[in-house]
Amino acid sequence: MIESYTRRDFVRLLVLGGAALFLPACGERPEQLETQNSAGSPDQVLNDAADSNAVDQQVEEIIEVWDNDDVVFLKQKNPEYARYKGRFNKDISKSPALIALCYTTAGVVRAVNIARQEGLDVSVKSGGHSFEGFSSNDNGLVIDLTFMNAITWENDQQVRIQPACKLAQLYDELLPAKRLIPAGSCGGVGVGGLTLGGGYGFFSRKYGLTCDSLTGLTMVDGRGRVHEVKNDHELMWACRGGGNGNFGVITEFRFKTHPAPQHFYSHRFKAYKLTVERARNLLEQYFLLSRNLPEACFSAFVLNGKTLTLLVTNYEGPHAGLQAMLDRLAELCDKTTIGNAVPLEKALKKYYGRPDPLYFKNASAGLYRSFDDVETCIDLVLEKVIQSRGLIYQVNTLGGKIDTPEFERQSCFPHRQELYLSELQAYWESESHGVELKQRFDEIQAIFVKNGIDKQYRNYPNLKFPNWQQAYYGRSYAKLQQIKLAYDPDNLFHYPQSVALPAE
Ligand SMILES: Cc1cc2nc3c(=O)[nH]c(=O)nc-3n(C[C@H](O)[C@H](O)[C@H](O)COP(=O)(O)OP(=O)(O)OC[C@H]3O[C@@H](n4cnc5c(N)ncnc54)[C@H](O)[C@@H]3O)c2cc1C
Predict the structure, then answer these.
(1) Shortest-distance atom of ligand 1 to CA 251
(2) Nearest residue by C-alpha to atom 2 in ligand 1
(3) Which pLDDT value is given to residue 41?
(4) Mean pLDDT, to the nearest integer, of 318-330?
(5) DSSP assignment of 465-504, as one string?
(6) Would the pLDDT of 294 be above 60?
(7) Contact 471, 448 (CB under 8 A)
(8) Distance in Å, CA 290 to ligand 1 centroid
(9) Does the beta carbon of 353 sit less than 6 angstroms from any atom of ligand 1?
(10) Ligand 1 mean position, distance from CA 153 (Å)
(11) Is the pLDDT assigned to residue 61 strictly greater than 80?
(12) What confidence score (pLDDT) does residue 354 get?
């Protein structure tokens, strides 16, 4: 236990990576320190540790923080480092110099100050699901919020949520109280990254994007200053769609919740061994039919190689537009499964996805208003997907309340009039398959770019998007740069697609 070690012992162990910090399940603090055989004899340890005053000083500071229970710093030599280094996307490997496991806002302030002092770049991690690994870096400092995942009710409609709360945890807490926030479907995604980039899912057509339910937040900025803001503040505007690792570290969100329906229906249609012509026809029909869906419905066109799955979900009563879509899809597809009413909590779990890290490449493939946007290039795209096992082209419905003037005014999210969001996905197990799929992936993205698809979802980033500033943020970008200047004037928070300071 920590009490059985003197401060000097702990310094020695940390410097040589001999301290194993046992960090148990989410939300608990590290409680034990153990020596490791490989750390060398105590004398050796002491001599090595004495070598550098600078290191000693830094570690002394780390100890100070440890004593305060606010943050624990892990260096590459610490055995626990490997456990926190990884991300959901196994295809991306980064090695930060220091991982700051933060427990409190004060711990985040401390980590920001250490980064400024040591001249380290900073990345911020909540759920670790960034497609492009934007929540980590090489040789910098990662502010890891894994243990800041609590949910607290302020009253029966308002909640405070820490950023590393995962969606499964969110639904587990809210649904028994018959409330919800319109978040995404994958159980492992963090509330932090999801909300700051927008966030959409089954309930967005009814209640807006995840960020539209945000009523306040706490942020530590690039100078280590703490801001508590709410409602119409400019920082709220920026963090509703543009807040991912750009201005500071959000340490708490405040959300309004909405009534949760009791039951959920999932209807599925399958079509097999598709030709390009049939896939195109089905996609066109999907666009036409889904326009008449009520707000309580969500629909997705998912082409996985030669097999199509069309999903239509609903959580309210019968509706003529919904029935027309179900009837027509049943005629057009090879297999129809009309779902029964399932309790919402149980139904959502089916969409949580795999919890363990995967090899994949995913990215936005454009936001569209209608089939017209892709008409000229879709045959080429469908042909490549149909020919490639492991490639998925998906189109999801947006629309409904997402396109509300009040939400438009209060957020930097620029794509509210686009009724569809598409995504290209590739999954593989072997390296050679990965190389081939990523090449196909890039070819398809290039087709979209060539054909003028230029609006993209920030939460589905791709390092290869040309003019990503406009693609993600549209006309909001210039104002986001001014907000960057106000909160992170030294550009402490940056990664390949972070909001840049305005040109002088
Ligand atoms: C399997 C899977 C399913 C998905 N499903 C959906 C879905 O249904 N709907 C949807 O809208 N999106 C979905 N996404 C995309 C998801 O919204 C983004 O990947 C999101 O950014 C992940 O957030 P995170 O906290 O898990 O990731 P992280 O990797 O921790 O963070 C992502 C980005 O946000 C920044 N960030 C995170 N926390 C903070 C913070 N506290 N303060 C400041 N910046 C921060 C990071 O620096 C990084 O740039 C999915 C992604 C995956 C991999």
Answers:
(1) 41
(2) 186
(3) 25
(4) 98
(5) -TTHHHHHHGGGHHHHHHHHHHH-TT--B--TTSPPPPP-
(6) yes
(7) no
(8) 27
(9) yes
(10) 23
(11) no
(12) 87
- Which residue puts its alpha carbon closest to atom 37 of ligand 1? 193
Report the C-alpha gap between 369 and 405 in whole angstroms.
17
Q: Is the CB of 136 under 6 A from ligand 1?
A: no
Distance separating alpha carbons of residues 176 and 263, to the nearest angstrom: 13
Q: Of 16-25, 191-200, 271-280, which range is least confident?
A: 16-25
Q: Compute the mean pLDDT over every residue in the chain, rounded to the nearest whole number.
A: 88
Cβ of 250 less than 6 Å from ligand 1: yes
Helices (H), 350-423: 378-387, 405-410
Whole-number Å distance, alpha carbon 26 to ligand 1 midpoint, is 18
Distance of CA 432 to the CA centre of its chain: 27
- C-beta of 127 in contact with ligand 1 (< 6 A): yes
CB 191 less than 6 A from any atom of ligand 1: no
The gap from C-alpha 42 to its chain's centroid, in whole angstroms, comes to: 44
Q: pLDDT (tens digit, 9 = 90+) per residue, 17-45?
A: 222 222 222 222 332 222 222 222 222 22
Instruction: Please work out whether the CB of residue 313 comes within 6 Å of at least one atom of ligand 1.
Output: no
Q: CB of 398 closer than 6 A to ligand 1?
A: no
Is CATH 3.30.465.10 correct for 151-260+474-487?
Answer: yes
Q: What is the mean pLDDT of residues 45-54?
A: 33
For ligand 1, say whether the CB of 300 is within 6 Å of any of its atoms: no
Stated length of the chain: 504
Do 78 and 17 meet the contact criterion of CB atoms below 8 Å apart? yes
What DSSP designation does 38 have? G
> How does pLDDT run across 390-402, given as a tens digit for each residue?
999 999 999 999 9
- Which residues, including other chains, have CB under 8 Å from residue 52's CB and lie 6 or more apart? none
Q: Which CATH class is domain 2-144?
A: alpha beta
H or E element that contains 397:
strand 391-397
pLDDT at 57: 53
Domain coordinates in residue numbering, the chain = 2-144, 151-260+474-487
Distance CA 100, CA 78 (A): 12
Q: Give backbone dihedrals phi and psi of 210, rounded to 5 degrees, phi first.
A: -55, -45
pLDDT in tens, 471-490: 999 999 999 999 999 999 99
Q: What does the pLDDT read at residue 50? A: 32
Task: Select the more confidently predicted residue: 355 or 224.
Answer: 224
Going 471 to 473 to 478 to 482, the CA torsion angle's sign is: negative
